[in-house]
Amino acid sequence: MKKALLLAMSLLLTAHIAAEVNPKPFVIPELTAWTGAEGRFTPSGRIVINDKTIRPAAEAFAADYRTMFHQPLAITKGRAKAGDFTFVWDKSLPEEAYTVEVAEATTVRASTLKGFKWAAQTLLQISEQAADRSLPRGKACDEPQYKLRGLMLDCGRKYIPLRYIRELLKTMSYYKMNTLQLHLNDNGFPQYFEDDWEKTQAAFRLECDTYPGLTARDGAYSKAEFIALQKAAEQLGVEIIPEIDVPAHSLAFTHYKPELGSRDYGADHLDILNPETQTFVDNLFKEYLAGENPVFRGKRVNIGTDEYSNKDKAVVEAFRAFTDRYLSLVKQYGKQPACWGSLSHARGETPVQVEGVLMFCWSKDYAKPQEMKDLGYQLVSIPDGYVYIVPAAGYYYDYLNCQMLYEKWTPAHMGSVQFEENDPQVEGGMFAVWNDHVGNGISVADIHHRVFPALQTMATKCWTGKKTSLPYAEFDRLRHQLSEGPGVNELGRLEKKAALSELPAGKFLREAISEEYNGLATADLAQLPDELGWPYRISFRIDCAEEARGTVLFRGSDATFYLSDPQQGRLGFARDGYLNTFNYRLPTNGSHLVTIEGTNTCTRLFIDGKLREELKPLKVYAMNDAERIRFQPDAPFVPTVYAPTWRNTMQYVRTLRFPLRETGAFRSRITSFEAEQTTE
């Protein structure tokens, strides 16, 4: 009996002790190693450093900490005390690895500033999950399983503003994603432009002095802006890989210089047998690679080389020679060349160099992963059937299948080919956003809504590989606790309902709320987004007055909501160059309750509690004469009728992230204004 009692007491004591040991904290990507200890660390408000070369890392951490939590961290020298953070060099650690030991003080060790950056992101993520910003005691030893962890963004078919890219870089950094490839030129599909190459959308998004007029007029980046963007990315630990895609996807170049277009394979193909093509492409790359301070600052440049015709041996050999030429040219300027790779698609005898080339394996029809590995290429895993987002297109993914990726995929998995984990030839993994359907109404907000959950998942799988320990359901539940990064709110999250008894015209909403609710905390105002994300409900009572066309209710970062749109005087909204209107005009007098509800698929208008209209995805058609049918050839009036096919249908999206930054100059009286996120 006595032995049994002692055993029971021992088991209870053991269980109590075990309960005191902190489990691995939740962060994205998951920590690769954790040893729990007892108790918690409460910050003192100090960072201690004793080496000035670490100061940039400490300053960056302090700035992000203040941005996120509105609490300062003073940087000082001396001996670390209880509650202090201290940053210490440890040159024995690999480049991106770090350790964090949380005890009386929290000690961060790394061998590079990038290692300190990743450690800081871990500390920030843990801190934001605790109201008092305390940390669980224990030791984390963290190191990525893959060197390259990234995203490819198609800016050619859809202009992506620098404002958004800068915010995206902060989010990538927060989740330790270290590579952003910008696809700087491309074109739409001709079937949506009357099967006429001259009418088909095409764009090159960089300022160009060598070929004046080449730069897209509907949105482009100046050289100074692009250089500044890369510098900002470097500070965040992210490399930008610029991509100029040749010799296919090159309609922007043949629009500019038609004689460079192929007569055999389509105007989006450069004629690689024409000597003038090499001169043109040589000069184009030279503009951004030459000089002591080139426009392309990073260590890598992608030359494209995907989806060119392999119709006959002559074109295959010419394509291989073209590819080799531009791999060499990039090397001549001291950069590592990257390419999409089509060497399985274009088998031939002309040699294509291997050494130092980074190949993006996206389709076995173009570059079989095992073949490319056997040839000796360094590989980036970006399999189209797993990681391609094409918004609202009806093929590939609208939203990535994050559960499948989390449970079954790592960068070692390239389509049907599975390499060994940590194979030295597998550089890492990426996912991609392709804006194939030009003119389909997709906004930057729509793109980000697709990118963010994918980014959280891909960050985990590229850093942690197979070493994930949480079931997907738990990961998916916990990931919502984390923000998009210091000061980033592209999802338009709103924690508390925003309300005003009367909405003033011509005022910033934060300012108006501050005046009505005197003494409202700065933190409460800071969480009010410029544009409210999905799902949401906006409601207000309007005592109507006559409004001129173009009268604005609200403006945001990217969107405008009209009380009277510029064309027809209806309620409506504009964003990303698109104007969408409801089939409703406000009367010039009387009082009405207006409610707008938005989701990631539609925007609804209610008047006095009754659904007036729902702007859902709209199937639209690209028409051309080849598909015309004359049902009544002998009738005096012949209607034009078309037989739509899968080739020419498109889903036109009419979503709105509701703008809340500032009000317009309206005449109506607006009262009982409320903005809230819903649970739909």
Walkthrough of the structure:
The chain has 680 residues and is α/β, with parallel strands linked by helices. The chain folds into three domains: 22-142, Chitobiase/beta-hexosaminidase domain 2-like (Chitobiase, domain 2), CATH 3.30.379.10; 188-220 and 239-444, TIM Barrel (Alpha-Beta Barrel); 498-617 and 653-677, Jelly Rolls (Sandwich), CATH 2.60.120. Helices cover 26% and strands 26% of the residues. The chain contains 15 helices and 39 strands. The protein is globular, with a radius of gyration of 28 Å.
Write the layout of secondary structure elements.
Elements: H1 2-20, E1 34-41, E2 46-48, H2 55-69, E3 74-76, E4 85-89, E5 98-102, E6 106-110, H3 113-128, E7 135-142, E8 148-154, H4 162-174, E9 179-183, E10 185-187, E11 202-204, H5 223-235, E12 239-246, H6 251-256, E13 261-262, E14 266-270, H7 275-289, E15 300-304, H8 313-332, E16 336-339, E17 358-361, H9 369-375, E18 378-381, H10 384-387, E19 388-389, H11 402-408, E20 413-414, E21 417-418, E22 426-433, H12 444-464, H13 472-479, E23 498-503, H14 509-516, H15 522-526, E24 531-532, E25 536-543, E26 551-555, E27 559-564, E28 572-575, E29 578-581, E30 591-598, E31 603-607, E32 610-615, E33 618-621, E34 628-629, E35 641-642, E36 649-652, E37 658-659, E38 662-663, E39 669-677
Parallel strand pairs: 2-3, 2-4, 4-6, 8-9, 8-22, 9-12, 12-15, 15-16, 16-17, 17-18, 18-22, 19-22
Antiparallel strand pairs: 1-7, 5-6, 5-7, 10-11, 13-14, 20-21, 23-39, 24-37, 25-30, 25-39, 26-27, 26-38, 27-28, 28-29, 30-31, 31-32, 33-36, 34-35
